[in-house]
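In response to a reviewer's request, we include the raw inputs and outputs for one of the modeled complexes. The two entities were modeled together in a single run.
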Amino acid sequence: MTAEDVLVCGAGITSFARTEESGRQLAVRAVRDALADAGLPWTRVRAAYGGSDAAGNADTLVAELGLTGVPFTNVRNGCATGGSALVSAVNAIRSGAADVALAVGFDKHPRGAFDPRPADWGLEEAYGRDGLMVTTQFFAMKIQRYMHDHGISPRTLALVAEKAYANGVLNPRAWRRKPLDATEILASGMVNDPLTRYMFCSPGQGAVALVLCSRAVARRLGGTAVALRAAVVRTRRFGSFEVFSPWAPAGTPTSVTADAAQLAFEEAGLGPGDIDVCQLQDTESGAEVMHMAECGFCAHGDQESLIPFGATGIGGSLPVNTDGGCIANGEPIGASGLRQVHEIVQQLRGRAGERQVPGDPATGFTHVYGAPGVSACTVLTR
Amino acid sequence: MEGALSAVPSETGGRLRGSRCADCAVAVYPADPACPRCGGPAEPVALSGTGTLWTWTVQRYAPKSPPYVPPAAGFAPFTVGYVELAEGVRVLAVLDIRPEDAEIGMPLTIAAGDGVPRATGAVV
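The model returned the following structure tokens for the whole complex.
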């Protein structure tokens, strides 16, 4: 028996700008939008998976969506929450257990959120007391070493953020919609060398829902379904370099991102060279630079001859983060991974509006990375 | 009470107390009774007191309190980094050097203190 093909037949997203709405309210709206997009009623959903990091349990959404008895599984998996929900929904379709399944991710974080406590991470109190439990420090130290090893310049980091804000201007649902140029970004104040203030994303809010279905259902629905060819989640192996690590082993670090990306490409039977548009985790500028190579889209160091020449812009040879990524959309942890998939679905359907990649893109890729060393990747085709 | 971060007794001169797995030679800090690679037993070891800077950054703003406790004189930007030791372990430390002096590959001495490890410019 071969596994069922899995298609995305409906996609819904809220604005990622700050509002008074609760995370749950955002999630309900995203689910209703996704169902309307698919042309399916809530009663038709046979399995649902979802979660948030800090905005409540997804299964409580049945109170607003309708008490249909649908099995609804809560997922709370940090930055991989959306990816893990998606994998579960994919498996429900592939196994034949459901022919219509929902994945939903949502969150709402206050300004300056993310307060790690040493004990939660198995660390001595001293790491918090002495000022070493700061996530931005880790991102800075990872890209600092990468720039040393692979010849990446600070200006290239600024250009990544400049592109993110430029794409945000074109995305009506982005949070940051004001253009900023590389010079302003470099001058915005050093947070942790070499990263400046405007190179970072901020904790935010938003919700995304995707309706998945079998080939048979997609055929009946008509419309433009997009095939979800691979969806994988991996955790780190020994030797990786992660946030809040009192130590790391010597040698070239292993990468959970590389592991997840490779597995996703194998599952899809495609390679990085086949991809027309991608969304890569850009917690800050350096992350996007490193993830381009870790996912296999270029050799380490080649970013320096790609990014300054517009290769990752919407009209470039490999458009990256066409919706503005985390830098322009903010980081609602539970929603980010599905936002990326939503954007690829819109790009492959030719519905991305002003930020549409030219030339009818037919293949897309998404990548999430998060603490404490998790990565989720998908491959989608038209 | 003696915490896991404390130095080995003074005869080893404030050196960091780590552990090493006999089978895969993986050294870790702070000491851990189990090897993070194979899960086997690890033995305590006094780590080298000198190493080289693998990467670094500067904490330019005061981290959130709690958990951060600023010094009595108030917050001042400080340098942090990973110091690579001969045992094949990179140890996160506060670097008692000026930010403008930080350079990947520079030699440093590293020791246990009241809290996290602290490193300073090596005497050459």
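As requested, we also summarize the result in words. Chain B has one domain: 10-121. The radius of gyration of chain B is 15 Å.
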